[in-house]
Amino acid sequence: MTVPFLRRIKFNPNVSLADRPVVALTVAILTNTIVDYELVSDHTRSGCALGLPSGNGEVSGDLAIARFIAKKAASSSMLGGDDEEIALMDQWVDYALSLSKFGLARRALSIQRTLDPLLVSGTYVVGHSLTLADVALFASLGFPSTEEGKAEIAAILPA
């Protein structure tokens, strides 16, 4: 089955992981909507984009696409619950995005210093379940899921 043009996520597979729609795809998987999107290789792009349903343009940027997918997903808790949680989630996503201009060591230390007091009383950044804020912060660390990635982060952070 061919996905309509407006459900295509376009990106250049030859760019760095930071310029690919990794957070958007993670949100699409976690909201069980990944089948609604088609990935399109576009070697002319420097970032990623998703066509708008109205046909009037596209949304550019991994986190912007992720927010769009989370909002469109029926019964998604990825954005938080009430208006306050949504505002807090947006705040954390903006914070994660602001860290992108720094090197890994500074990002990791900043996130640790910011989250240490917050996570003393909870597991998630906002509310009581995984939200886009958690995924965005993990992405700002470079998705350290391999042993090498985890070791690199562990070497940066104090014991």
Write the layout of secondary structure elements.
Elements: E1 8-11, H1 22-30, E2 38-41, E3 48-51, E4 58-60, H2 62-72, H3 83-98, H4 104-118, H5 132-140, H6 147-156
Parallel strand pairs: 1-2
Antiparallel strand pairs: 1-3, 3-4
Helix pairs in contact: 1-2, 1-5, 3-5
Features:
alpha+beta, single chain, 4 strands
Would you kindly provide a written description of the structure presented here, covering whatever features stand out?
- This protein is 44% helix and 9% strand.
- The longest helix has 16 residues, at 83-98.
- It is built from six helices and four strands.
- With 159 residues, it is α+β, with helices and mostly antiparallel strands.
- The protein starts with 7 loop residues before the first strand and ends with a helix.
- Strands 2-1-3-4 form a four-stranded mixed beta sheet.
- The chain has helices at residues 22-30, 62-72, 83-98, 104-118, 132-140, 147-156; strands at residues 8-11, 38-41, 48-51, 58-60.
Outline of the structure:
With 159 residues, the chain is of the alpha+beta class. The protein is built from six helices and four strands. A hairpin with a 6-residue loop joins strand 3 (48-51) and strand 4.
With strands numbered from the N-terminus, the spatial order across the biggest sheet is 2-1-3-4
Biggest pleated-sheet summary? 4 strands, mixed
**Poorly predicted spans:** none
Number of H- or I-type helical stretches:
6
Average pLDDT score: 88
Share in helix = 40-55%
Radius of gyration: 16 Å
- In whole angstroms, the N-to-C terminal distance is 51 Å
Multimeric organization: single chain
Structural class, from secondary structure content? alpha+beta
Strand content: 5-15%
Number of strands: 4
Order of SSEs? EHEEEHHHHH
What is the overall silhouette?
globular
